[in-house]
């Protein structure tokens, strides 16, 4: 696991995108550790993963990848990343339509995790180092990424993910009569 990156205070596009990767990896890990009895919480975590990935893919596609193309000239790498995003989006779409307790939730999440991990490795080991070596203004790009991310979070009504204490979170669900929603 990579070291903790700066989150909202990241001042460089690569650091910002890497922090997004770390966050989603953490959510996948949390999902896997989740007690199978807590289907409502598993469903919420899956939806949070879907939301984070949707926003991350959008800011990469709208802002970061065009800059990578322009600054590194590496069309093939960007095209491959876009293909990987398409696979991620298909799985996200599938997950979005699932209710809590859906028998396909775990299997689809596993596929999504494998897909995302592969994509993250490609970006962190190849694309990011190459863009760091280019003349790209990563600080200016970071500003643009953060602005767009904020807009999208607002648009999608993003809410902070539940706390790490799954039992406690599940207890809160039951107390508010939302279990299994
Ligand atoms: Fe990424």
3D structure, described in words:
- The protein has 181 residues and is mainly α.
- The chain has a single domain, classed as Up-down Bundle (Four Helix Bundle (Hemerythrin (Met), subunit A)), CATH 1.20.120.
- It is built from six helices and no strands.
- α1 packs antiparallel against α4, α2 packs antiparallel against α3 and α3 runs antiparallel to α4.
- The site of fe (ii) ion has 5 residues, from α1 and α2.
Low-pLDDT segments, ≥5 res:
1-8, 161-181
**Architecture, CATH level 2?**
Up-down Bundle
Largest sheet: none
| Extended strand count | 0
Number of helices: 6
Rg (CA only):
17 Å
Through-space gap between termini = 33 Å
Secondary structure category? mainly alpha
Portion in helices: over 70%
CATH-defined fold name: Four Helix Bundle (Hemerythrin (Met), subunit A)
Topology:
Layout (H helix, E strand, L loop, with lengths): L12 H21 L5 H34 L2 H22 L8 H29 L4 H18 L10 H10 L6
Would you summarize the structure shown here?
This protein is an all-alpha fold.
Please describe the structure with a list of short key phrases separated by commas or semicolons.
single chain; 181 residues; mainly alpha; Four Helix Bundle (Hemerythrin (Met), subunit A); 6 helices; elongated; disordered C terminus; binds fe (ii) ion
